Protein 1
Amino acid sequence: MSLKKDVILEGIAASPGIAIGKAFFLEDDDFCVTCREIPEYAREVEKKRLNSAVEKTRDELKMVYNRIDEVLGKSYARIADVHLLILDDPTMKKNVYELIDNGINAEYAVFRTVDDIVHSFEFIEDGYFRERKVDIQDIGKKIIWNLLGKQKKTLASLEEDSIVISRNLTPADTMTIREKLVKGFATDVGGKTSHTAIIAQGLSIPAVVGLKVISSQAQTSDVIIIDGNRGEVVLRPTTKTISKYRKEHTLQFAKKKDLEKLKNLSAETTDKHKVLLFANIDNPDEMESILSNGAMGVGLYRTEFIYFNRDTMPSEKDHFENYSKVAVAMSPYPTVIRTFDLGGDKLAKTGLLKVEREKNPFLGLRAIRLSLKYPEIFIDQLRGVLRASAYGKIRLMYPMISGIEELYEANEVLNKVKQDLRRENIEFDEKMEVGAMVEVPSAAMIIDAIANEVDFVSIGTNDLIQYTLAVDRVNENVAGLYDPLHPAILRFIKKIIDESHKAGITVSMCGEMAGDPYCTPVLLGFGLDQFSVSSAQIPKIKRVIRSISFENAKKISEEVLRCGSRDSILRIINTISTQ
């Protein structure tokens, strides 16, 4: 019986692009671990055997760090740092030792400990941290692999253009590739923040993750198509399908070249209405990328990554060095620094703060609430921001403002820090602008009051949509209800822009909606002043803006606001050619 053709599997689009190649299976390192009884006299020897395996694993991870640093830079190399931190986790080591002291062999002790930790991660609601359980599993498997004295198959054995298929890929796996031969990745597990996704993006290799069954349904040497734009994989495609995707690949390559020509052109409509295109960043190492894509500023510096991969709280010096580096590189354009948008659960997980686990961290102690509860942490960050403001055009922004009282309290702390710096004769920008994120429905409803107390606002659509529609965007059961074009969301956005303009301040948008070219005409018509997006999206958004008149965009936005359903909104938007 012949195999079915054009089997389409749906997953998560992790890295854009089209790739065609033969399936190469990276053997999954799952194996049977048996429990053996270790007599008391042999338990110290068993611990030494464990320590040797841990040291070998550490050496391997350091090699991975160096390789990633060499190819992609330090921002990506920090991925390996996460694995090293897990390897050195004292609690994990203590639990393994206790099991060995109770007479259990090292391999099974590691397996049991990792299994318990991974099980506890199932109850974490935050998508980023929930995905870290895969990292813990990877480290556990590496240690067991070294205890067993086995070697794993690597991607270095590739001999032809291939699509790599695996249950999961570790940083070590992805960095053994021969870039000319690996055309794409497809994995059973993973999400947009998984290491496979991050490294694939860095290498500009198309990838689809979270496919669940790709490793069981694909067959060795099958021709496979990766569609990293739609998050789809086509198994055993017909000649007709292959031809279609090859044409699409050629078109995308041509579009990419056209987009590169827009770098030095302004984001200006056909009737000369100008907006600003800013970039979202996580760390200073991304500056080269955003400048090469023509960013006119940093609209969102997510400072929470300064708190990860460390065992002590970042110091004032850490903050200052990170922020000043970006400010200098971006000068004379502005850099908007958001104070940390972390939940207490996240800092507790990193060991930096002792906070009881919350049943619903999305509605709990996070962002500005956490900053105000622990002002000593907040003050260190504010001092770093203010000191860095002497080196470039820095703006400060508070996340998750839900009421005017939080804004007053945050500014009170800021003013106290300014007084301290003046007394210490430390230079800073006395006119540094201060803004607020509007990402909570209550803030959107009182935007008129908030707008009169700040120099600018930025709409965080990711959380605004989530909180307004009561949809957890990382919950696959309800993710389909997460809709940027819901009439309620569009009306909120319009209200925020209009009320802010009445108060004489500018409005930016830094959520994923800002980087969606499909939404650009509507946001433009609403009067959005600044789009802050990932660096790769800057040319795409600029192309849309330069292809439409502002007058036409305003007409479209007026029509959309009169709609009561998503379907009617889509019909209007679909009449616009943005390609």
Protein 2
Amino acid sequence: MEVKFTPEQKIVNELFGREIKYIIPEYQRPYSWDCEGKSDKNNQVNLMWDDLYNFYSHSRIETYFLGSMVMIGNGARIYRVVDGQQRLTTLVLLFAAIKCFIKAIQPMLKDAGLYEFSNNVINNVDDLIFDRKLFGVQTIEKKVRIENFGSFNYDDVLSAAIECQHNQINASNEDTKSEYLVVAGRYFKNRDFFVEQLQKSFLTQGEFTQKDAISLNAFFDFIKNRVSIVRILSDSFDVAFHIFEILNNRGLPLSNKDLFRNFLLREFDRLNSEKGSEASEPSKKWAFLEENYDLRDDFLSRWVESKNARQQQYSAYNDLREIYDHQYQDTLQGSKVEHFYKDIEQDLKHYTNIVNATVADERLRAKLLVLIHAGNNRYTLNFLLALWRQKRGSEDAELIDLVNAYEIFILHKLLLGRFSAGPIYAAIKLIQEGRYADATQALAPESLKIELLEKIKTGKLDNDAGKLLISKWIWLQEGFQDDVIEQTLLFEKATLEHILPQVPVPGSNWLSEFSGSFRQSFTQRLGNMTLLTTRSNSAARNYDFARKKGIYAKSKLKTTLKLAQQDSITEAFLENRHRKICNDIFRDLQLDLHT
């Protein structure tokens, strides 16, 4: 018997049509998307909002593609979700946020027309979320239902979030309470995050005006009628799961790099046909790029996003074609593809220098290394490539100041904040207009600088942030040596070492010579941190200073060697060391040391 599957492109209005039910089976993992974190890996909801709102505000393309979902269905309009529950649930929470936003502002609406509009919005949202049925009396059922995860009833949590209730979830099983509360909390946090964004976007000085109503209506219409998903249906679990595996694990489609290569070869071959010659030698054009530059698969995505100052819409290759078709043309100085190739080669040279931190200025090199190892490389490379392109790679004061502002922005997000790509793309647009001072301000306003300075100076740092900042300090202190005999810090091979251990062994000097309050407040500060190799770090562990001293003496890092030269480590020594490290970092970041 032949088993089929059917891919269908559906706009949101169709996806949440009448008498449709989506069941998230119990074997699915719990809802995992977050709106809070330090990178794009744990800010899926945040980035989804940025994508949707930026596309709605700026894109000329008609339809926004949100991705695919794989489901089991047999035509009865009841679908079991195999892949796509994160998008599906988050869409429902976005609908709920629109309703909660409207309900919150309704009491302040004096205009009858606006009040009627608000009721219409709530009804339209409910039409997306619920099916209304009449069985003698009217009943409503959610279109998305979550099967129980063991003893956890996340369906009730989703229902509460949809009805604009506060998070008052309690788990009866103490052994699993923490896990349940963390997952349950995401539904409310993500809904409330969307509410915050709606307040920022559709209120004027705290008031809901006619203009705001028009804008909200247009945005809601965009969500319903211009956001689309490819829904892949099969009537067999085995087939549906096989499709899921292919999409997520084993698919080997042509990469952006493959498509880019074929495109360049085709365009140069077409140019040769028009000229009646083989002067351009297409294969050598491509070989030159691969042999002379760091042409990674990622380059094309970074190129189009840095050019467009927004995230790619469908694929990097399609966006590249749009740029090529609309921004390049034949001139007396050369053909369309030759102009394009010249720009690509120049930008690839910039990209290579950025990803490998091969720049002449040592301070700038240290900044690039910090940014490369801070995560969020997608947005970092977009920003840096746009900046290098505009400045033509010149390592002048304006370029360094902008990299410095971006470093402050990224460090703030790493240590303190919720990551958002919005300020980055706004800064790219300002850079493209030559408004460098405005771009610097967009990334690093004074309030953000003050928060970062205070966190570094007095806050507790986790291991990732501590390793990055102490590495920055070492790069600033020890510089970079090209001589093969000299030692240079390799971030990937180093591990963070706490001088005063986080858990000192009984009988060690750390317990007898350091107060409990000092250990509690200071262990996770920069003054108590250095770097070792993985093997040395394991050997040092939590022992007293006399034993650690011998391990530090074997290090090739001058910073760590200096510790081995100390007769003893005291509270005052660590405080002074912390003050020096902070001041050196603040000076490099151009932060006010007296704040």
Protein 3
Amino acid sequence: MKLNTACAIALLFAGCAWEATCDGERKDMKSAANPNAQTHDIRVTSFLPSQPVCRAKRPARITAILQNRGENDFNVAARIALPESVRLIGPGAEISVSIKSASESEIAWEVEALEPGECELSLSILPASGAKAVAETSLKILFLSEVTQKKLEYIPEPQPVKTRLLIGAHHCPLWEADKPQMWNNIIKHPERTPALGFYSQENPEVSDWETKWATEHGVSFFIYCWYRSSQGGPVTMNFGSAIHDALFKSRFKDKMKFTIMWENQSKGTSGVSGEKDLKENLFPFWMENYFKFPGYLKVDNRPVLFIYRPEFLIQDLGSVENVVKAFDWMREESKRHGFDGLYILGEYRGLDAKHLRLMKSLGLDYSFAYCWHVPNSPTPEVAINTQLDYIRKTQELGILPQVVTVSQAWSGWNDEGSIWKIPPTDFERLLKEAGDFVATLPKEQLGSRMLLLDNWNEWGEGHYIAPYREYGFGYLDAVRKVFSDAPEAHEDLIPEDIGMGPYDKAYRETMRREKELRELGSKQVFKTGAPEKGLVAWWAFDEKDDSPVALDYSGHRMGGQLIKAKRNKGVEGSALVCDGGCVVVANNPLLTIEKEITISCWVKTDVAGQGNTWFVNRIFSGGTATGYRMGVLDGKACFEIPVSDWSHHLSASDPLPTGRWVHLAGTFDGKIMRIYVDGVERGTMERPGPINPNPFKLCLGSFEVGHAAHFIGLLDEVKLYDRALSAEEVKQRAKKPAGAGG
């Protein structure tokens, strides 16, 4: 995969990385010992169009980001190669550039496609001497059909097409201006870049573009994921801006219907505290803000409500019988407000008859799937057939009527588990077969009139049908072709066509700041004692109190960003205060240590019995059988190098001392894990095989950014080695520095 310019900037602290193949010399541990070594390490970290999507017969800017991880400036020539259908505008195909040590350079070309369609561009990075390329990569790019650019005052009025079924799409409202981290998985998958760029969803213009694109292709309503942020009192929400700030304030709000899917999954915050909370807070909020809104989806004069994890209401309300009573009350209350009742649908994506009977016993009207999880990373053919099999078997069980959902793809937020995608041409076949199935359902059922699409814009989890870089309007065109009688030939506009946008200003500002921090963190510094045999990194937290980065004092330039963290007096110099903040070090090949490892650090805490807190971590969702970490488990220092998911936790024999500085070390020699407290071995564990690698960031002071599993105390002098220190070496490092505090 390739990364766009902004994405490349984000790499250092996002923990996601892609790099082109590089034949240049790799810097190893020895290079730090000789700062004058003539080494270079050239990487292509981005080779992408600057625009979210491109058009034929219109200039497109293609940008490459070159990174020099070596210790010397290096002169290269970047050469772009184009197919016959694409011509170069402006400068020549080859551009010379000098890349400073531990920095990056941006190079750009203007190209123009002579006709619409997909083509492939390639890039070669050659040393100034003209020898063999030190890095190479390629880019597949789709050019949409030609459209004449013009400047309009606003988005043209949508021209909805009629469909033989009521077509809805699940809508994922996670893309708010102050949450740029939500785009991290798209950074790894730039082919997913939306036609709106990395947009801020609270902008009403974003909603109007979505309304135009959806209705002109036959999608007549969105099902917004709806998140309650606390329960037991007046309603507060997370991610509510897509409805309240964008849709409700948009010009085209009367052109598009909407409904909500109550995300009742986070126990204690997203549900109800009891019957009183439901009747006095939650349901009245829905009625006044949504159900009575003219654009809310009603069928047979009944509002349509979707619920994710409806079974959790059993615990919230006390019993199955109480859930039935609550749903019946909601229906009667809807009638009191002038409706003919309320349709209540519960989410389920399996074939367990027992679970379906439970859902029926709750009083739900229908089941639906938010998405279909298809195992084993299937081919499009298998993904289609498996979904249709789920749908048919659900009907054959005859327990609870269904409203059919079809899924376009899946990856998970961290590319975990099954990963698959159905291209638009195959998706068209899935739509046809699903539509044919819906036609067989009993006419009195809601499912005979409605079809749900998964998903409009779940870019992070990898399922989406909104226009985007890889396939343009391909998925939406399939919906229009299958379910409407509108002409197949039509014009699809993007913001660039009419002089509107961009909608990613907040994200770009964040990335600008990230670039500044990356440059600060890449400064090469050494502390007394470095370089040292096998020393990969050394975070001492000895910068000025207001410094936003923690430098790497081993000389390997792996500084990290302080996120909601500060410093205080340490065992030597300053230390990192661990109270919820952390330092994030971006993924770097040096962090992937596979044979032997040592983590050495000093900690201090006044909180005894910490149960599951971590201060050095490189194990995250999607890779829980990889990496390494150190923290406190059940009150004792713990060192983990998993072989399988969350395996091989080695805890010290005694509780972690409190009220003073404690030296901790975890070593692994390829066979045995050892944990040391104040230089004394306090536990061993056999562990077979190498350390499983991953592409993750490293988090210091916590398990993860903003995570509850953060260490409480101080962290100092974190050292990472690619060898197992001996017991004597650990003992020497456990001696307090002269002048150290208590």
Protein 4
Amino acid sequence: MNGRLAGAFQVIAPTVALMLLATSGCMEIPVVETGSKPALAIGESREVSLHALRLQVSSYEQVLTRQDMLALPLDVREKLWLYNLDLRGEAGEQRLIDNALANIRSLDIDDPSLGGAERNMVRLLNMSPANADLTGTPMAQLLGLAPQVGIAAQEVLAQSLGVEVSEPFLGGEALAGAVVDGVISSHPNARRRPIHVSPEHPTGEVPVPAGHLPVTLEAVVTDLQSLTTTYGPVSKAGQSHPGFMTGATKASLLTPEFHMVVRANANALPYKGVDLSHGERGSVTSIGKEAAPLFDFDDPEWMRVVGIEPKPAVTEMSFRMVEAPVALQPGTSPLPKPMGNGSVWSLPKWSLERVVADAGLRAFKERTWSKSWVLGSDPTPLFEVTIRNGWMELETKGNLGKPPAPLYLWDLMILVAQRRLHDGPNLEAPEVGRIAEGDASVQFTLKDVSIGVTHKQITDAIRRNLEADPTSLVSVASRVLDQSAGAPDVYYVRPKWDAPTAEQGDWLFFIHADDQTSGTVRTYAQPGFFADSGLTQPLHVQTGVVGDTKHMKVRISSGQTLYCGDDTGAAFRIDVLAKPSQLRVRLRITRVR
């Protein structure tokens, strides 16, 4: 026994039950059939005995370690969503992206491990009115006018943008929002999370709230290593994205003592069914098919998570942004509002330039301000700046010079970014060795970046999410505890003695896609139970029995005859024979066509 939950239910519980039944003499234990019988020929019959043994386990507690979870099939780990990680903070809270950008701003531009584009990006993120190099941009003309009216160029720039002289143009909140919405949330794998397939969710996915990253069991138990693959380059459903994570990703999420403790209520024995094609018995898992819930969410101890780091952090991550290989032009009109007609808005949301423009839009879209400067005692303005919702116009008088054309502040940011991201290594002569257009994509390898959430916040979120939407967890449990065997088309269900009168008796359930937990899902042209061999007169219902309204089902009694089709298109007569005992039925299966 390997200690897994599957082992607990499939080995311990059934073994104990069978030992008790055998020693008490209250029931003959049916022999488990093995091997595969040849398919029935037309007109050939076989008899099959099905039993309805139960072992109800209540509040059974099982410990799952990281090794147990890693032993689960990969698709199970990837489909069990745990929580959505909030990437950016509000009201002063610092989350993963806030901390990552602060980490980038603090990098030493003299670090030889940084490439030319990365050094330029660090300079750009730290650019303020005090250290701005606006050479080659329209703002350079503005700053050239300032000394002529006796004011410092830095003051004109700071006052125009409404920032302190030493404050970066692209503030943390605006930049974080642009990165999250533009680079991360535009990735197809970041926009939706897995959920149990159902009529309400036929694709098995639902949207993720803006600004969040879905976290699955696979991501947690691999310390986020799987994120490099999940959020790397992708082309999915007509959407392409260059990815924003590359290289190794590591995190300090779980301590060596990490484990989950789960309490479950379940019938630990499977339902017995029959493969019509071969007239052979098989098993269908009972997990998640009982009227009573698998997990009692009223029990505060139904799940405990132990061993999450007090302050989870990403210990290593490589974050990238891709530059568009085009030269951009500023807008010539404030329309369409609020962005204007600048060419940057035609770029993909994940492109570096689009992110800079979006950050500028967020920072300055409501900036409205005007000021005029005079020379000496002459009241006539020589120089005037007017900004309305980010649209900046400059006017000069006399021989002060020709001002730049009106433009949005974010278009100005783009023009600055295009110049500075391509500067050569010598800042004294930035035109020498300039980086070619399209080669200024950046990639930063960051260390020890705090996620910004505590272990309690993560644990509480996991509990809330699983309690609010337990279907995925139940689906995973049915895989983990899979008791299935063979390929039964129908199976026998006998409700407990205290079930409502309308549900009492012996029932045959027709297989459903959710019952087929592994392998290729079998499909049926005419599922259900019928009164005729042509399968045109349905006998089945879908009313509630043991809490189930999904399966086609029929109550059976001795002497009854019904017909079914299998997944091969063959048809079979099922004759219900005399009951061998209270918890058993015997069926004769005959292939009719």
